[in-house]
């Protein structure tokens, strides 16, 4: 990987692409932005490949790059413009997930509406709260790992996580979920 | 996620966690995945890259002084050359400006230095990694103050992306060049700066400084240069050189557009930027001004 050998790069891509895409999509909430962000992440990985320590797990490095790229996107005008709402037809995985649940048309409509509301609830969180929530819930990081990644102390991470869940839960309750 | 139930304290939180667990996993478009994989494996991603990367490709690399001509052959000539080389080496070493050091680091997040993540709180690691030529990216919500004692202070604000320049030398070859790829960087010069020339390039603009306090803000649609004190020359960047350079006096700004439009006329600086620059100028005085009375304070 450090010598950018094509085989090693391919293995690295296969190992990390889905994880990177899921993370940036969840943080940004928009497919087009997530594709731009994923591309940016892999460009940075390619450029920094020679700095990788083969004895260490590259996972935290990749996650840190992806998180930083998303932070940059959050500051951009393009993100703010697209941050109004998530269209229903832009919900990745939804179509694939519905048939497997064996729902009837009415059930499918309810499920898609529920998914839309949950996505809205995530996106209404301020970015620092959303970041901690996604890293903990979906990336499975411990508080101390998130603290190391964000530069916060562990207590602040716990507080943000709790606030994120609380705010999201209240939003869902109001929406009838 | 059941192992994390200890986190849950009330009904709202539990409701949120259940909803998160039920959400379908995002999947990338197969064609996008295949294209990105091909670019990544082949290295074409470095050429094609992202829009931002293409802008980066336009940047000039930090210039270093070119090597001098060699003397004629022969023993005496060789001795003379060796002596001259020793002198040049010694003079070059003594001529070097003070190194960059981290005078302040605020906020949270991870700074990328040459692609390596360093938390903003780890000042020792930042000090070690931030050297001339290092590519540095400041995360949102963070700020770093860099100082070269007596010469120059730079405040890298959140989202800034730049290559750290060499510090201006002490006696000769006092030119330094810096490229800001994006974001806002504030500058203030010290009492040893006069006689030096700092050139700053953004994707759109060229700025020439001979001693002043100012900010360069590289945005998506152009670059804004705000001058608090002194004078800065600002113009469009054409073929990696400044064109139509015009002096911007203290208290004013000029905007250089990314498209072919003529740069804006002089305008008054915005009050908030004036305040931020004045604050930065004051905070750096202990290390930049020879006549400053007072000791070093940490931020």
Could you give a short description of this structure?
The complex is a heterodimer of chains A (177) and B (299). In chain A, 73% of the residues lie in helices and 0% in strands.
Which residues of chain A form runs of ≥5 with pLDDT under 50? 84-103
Can you give the mean pLDDT of chain A? 80
Record field, number of beta strands of chain A: 0
Rough outline of chain A? globular
- Rg value of chain A: 18 Å
* Largest binding interface between chains: A-B, 73 and 58 residues
Estimated share of beta-strand residues of chain A: under 5%
Q: Give the biggest sheet of chain A.
A: none
The amount of beta strand of chain B, in percent, is 25-35%
Overall spatial form of chain B: globular
Q: How widely separated are the two ends of chain A?
A: 46 Å
Number of helices of chain B: 7
Mean pLDDT, all residues of chain B: 78
Helical content of chain A (DSSP H or I, runs of 4+) = over 70%
Distance between termini of chain B? 41 Å
Secondary-structure element series of chain B: HHHHHEEEHEEEEEEEEEEEH
What is the subunit organization of this protein?
Answer: heterodimer
Strand segment tally of chain B: 14
